[in-house]
Amino acid sequence: MSDRKRIYLAATLALAVSTGLAGCESTSEVFHQGYIVDEQSLALVPVGSSREQVMLALGSPSTTATFDTEVFYYISQTRERGAAFMKQKLVSQTILAIYFDKNGTVERKANYTMQDGKVFDMISRTTPTGGKDLTFLQQLLSGGGRNGAAAAARNALGG
């Protein structure tokens, strides 16, 4: 074999190996969802700002809460996956909470991350109750009502 053919063969082999290894390179996809907090926009919303000023500076919130006081939540998530066929993994989550007082002005701001350990359920759409949550067993043991356990037993027996 001539030197020219050997060089051509070696170059072809090197190209094929490098192309094959390039396919093995770890390139993960990163997905950003939701509101990304901009410090300049957040500075436009000092304590005492109105609800309208918050909406103008930050836009519509991701979700709101209105149980005791009104709260605007701006939620951002970053997810990552190693390959197109893999499931996305949550890498970071940030929740900017703007708390309003009874007059509709900003009372305080909070920025929660995954490290804060705050549980925030965006899916269930449940409203918290004002009372104490009891399990079924706790309700049975406590009598299930104002009249106590004896009255609950009488009612259950149809008496």
Please outline the helices and strands.
Layout: H1 3-24, E1 29-34, H2 39-43, H3 51-58, E2 63-65, E3 71-81, E4 89-100, E5 106-113, H4 136-142, H5 148-156
Antiparallel strand pairs: 1-3, 2-3, 3-4, 4-5
What can you tell me about this protein's structure?
The protein is an alpha+beta fold and 159 residues long. The protein folds into two domains: 26-128, Beta-lactamase Inhibitory Protein, Chain:B, domain 1; 129-159, no CATH class. It is 32% helix and 25% strand. The protein has five helices and five strands, in the order αβααββββαα. The longest helix has 22 residues, at 3-24.
What is the overall pLDDT average?
Answer: 75
Specify the number of helices.
Answer: 5
Q: How many domains comprise the coordinates?
A: 2
Task: Please give the radius of gyration in angstroms.
Answer: 29 Å
Strand content: 25-35%
Give the H and E element order: HEHHEEEEHH
Helix/strand structural class: alpha+beta
CATH architecture of the largest domain, by name, is 2-Layer Sandwich
Could you list the spans in which at least 5 consecutive residues all have pLDDT below 50?
Answer: 119-125
| Shape assignment | elongated
Using the coordinates shown, work out and report the CATH topology of the largest domain: Beta-lactamase Inhibitory Protein, Chain:B, domain 1
| N→C terminal distance | 106 Å
Largest sheet: 5 strands, antiparallel
Helical amount = 25-40%
CATH class of the largest domain: Alpha Beta
β-strand number: 5
Short description:
By secondary structure, the chain is an alpha+beta fold. The protein has helices spanning 3-24, 39-43, 51-58, 136-142, 148-156, and strands at 29-34, 63-65, 71-81, 89-100, 106-113.
